Amino acid sequence: MAHQALEALIFKHKGVYFMKDMATPEVIDSIEHMEVRESDVFLVTYPKSGTIWTQQILSLILNEGHRNGTENIDNIERAPWIEYNIRNADFSSRPSPRLFSTHMPYYLMPRDLRFKMGKVIYVFRNPKDAMVSFYHFYQMYSKLSYPVDFETFADVYMSGKVIGGSWFDHVRGWYTHKEDFNILFLTYEEMKKDLRSVVLKICKFVDIKLDEKAIDIVLERATFNKMKYDPHANYSFLPKDLLDQSRGNFLRKGTIGDWKNMMTVAQNEKLNQIYKEKLGDLPIKFFWDINEETAS
Ligand SMILES: Nc1ncnc2c1ncn2[C@@H]1O[C@H](COP(=O)(O)OS(=O)(=O)O)[C@@H](OP(=O)(O)O)[C@H]1O
């Protein structure tokens, strides 16, 4: 029953799951033909992997008005989702450089990106923390008629029947097709460990030169505590009938290793096994705990 409640929120299209009532197969299919500009930046993530954090960083890097607080633009408007265009933004009339967000797999992206037009920033997070964050997100998701327990959620997540599909397929797909795109890979964990280096990497990738003072402002405004209370960044602007943040916060804990407080030994072993089967051959390393010195 609880499994059914979760599955009722999504629909499957071309091998991956989307939020019901928020996207249609026609819109998703049309994205392939979207015209891409050289200066476009597509932020791609599996859900709960650092999307809104990176949206904030990119908004700060690309817009002086965002850094000095003179503009009044929500990050969802600045970096609209291409598959969930809830504010009906007219993508073609947006000034450059345009910024877009998406949770889509590589094979549904605009075709022009394959010709190395535009830039892709792919941020991924270890699958255990992404799962725990996702579980808490579902508690706030207003379309879910009653709370789902963690055991059920972990089951559904590991089978990939959640928004965005399987974490394992998403990461594998993007990682093994990276040569097809002009792409920068980042991890949530490296952002946590050394945000300055990540911000410098992003600046280089998007070809923006900022002085030290501007970099410091980006770092300061992208901290967890600053973002938690920044109405342009914390997604409090989402309608309550979509996400009810009185039941939790989008900016919840913002750390590495919270999975240890939630997952049972059996769940952890099961996830490790799936990881080994699906990604064991790839040279990907993660920090699984905030105190780890080197990724494993
Ligand atoms: N500034 C900053 N620092 C550290 N962590 C941050 C920050 N901003 C967002 N977050 C954490 O990112 C998690 C939400 O992921 P997403 O933004 O990808 O969610 S979504 O896919 O767009 O729904 C969610 O993780 P959890 O706290 O583990 O739930 C957020 O807290």
Span between N and C termini? 37 Å
Helix content: 25-40%
Mean pLDDT: 95
Number of helices: 13
Helix-strand makeup class: alpha/beta
Q: What fraction strand?
A: 5-15%
Q: Give Rg in angstroms.
A: 18 Å
Largest sheet: 4 strands, parallel
Element-level helix/strand string: HEEHEHHHEEHHHEHHHHH
Uncertain spans, ≥5 residues at pLDDT below 50? none
The general outline is globular
Hetero groups in this structure are: 3'-phosphate-adenosine-5'-phosphate sulfate
The count of strands amounts to 6
The order of strands across the largest sheet is 4-3-5-6
Q: Could you describe the 3D structure shown?
A:
Helix 3 (51-62) runs antiparallel to helix 11. Strand 1 (10-13) and strand 2 form a beta hairpin. This protein has helices at residues 2-7, 25-30, 51-62, 64-67, 75-78, 127-140, 150-158, 167-176, 188-193, 195-206, 212-221, 224-228, 265-279; strands at residues 10-13, 16-19, 41-45, 99-102, 119-124, 183-187. Helix content is 38%, strand content 9%. It has 296 residues and is α/β, with parallel strands linked by helices. It binds 3'-phosphate-adenosine-5'-phosphate sulfate (PPS). Residues 45, 47-53, 129, 133, 136-137, 222-224, 227, 251-254, 258 line the site of 3'-phosphate-adenosine-5'-phosphate sulfate. 3'-phosphate-adenosine-5'-phosphate sulfate binds at residues 45, 47-53, 129, 133, 136-137, 222-224, 227, 251-254, 258.
Summarize the SSE layout with pairings:
Blueprint: H1 2-7, E1 10-13, E2 16-19, H2 25-30, E3 41-45, H3 51-62, H4 64-67, H5 75-78, E4 99-102, E5 119-124, H6 127-140, H7 150-158, H8 167-176, E6 183-187, H9 188-193, H10 195-206, H11 212-221, H12 224-228, H13 265-279
Parallel strand pairs: 3-4, 3-5, 5-6
Antiparallel strand pairs: 1-2
Helix pairs in contact: 3-11
Bound molecules: 3'-phosphate-adenosine-5'-phosphate sulfate.
3'-phosphate-adenosine-5'-phosphate sulfate binds next to helix 3, helix 6 and helix 12.
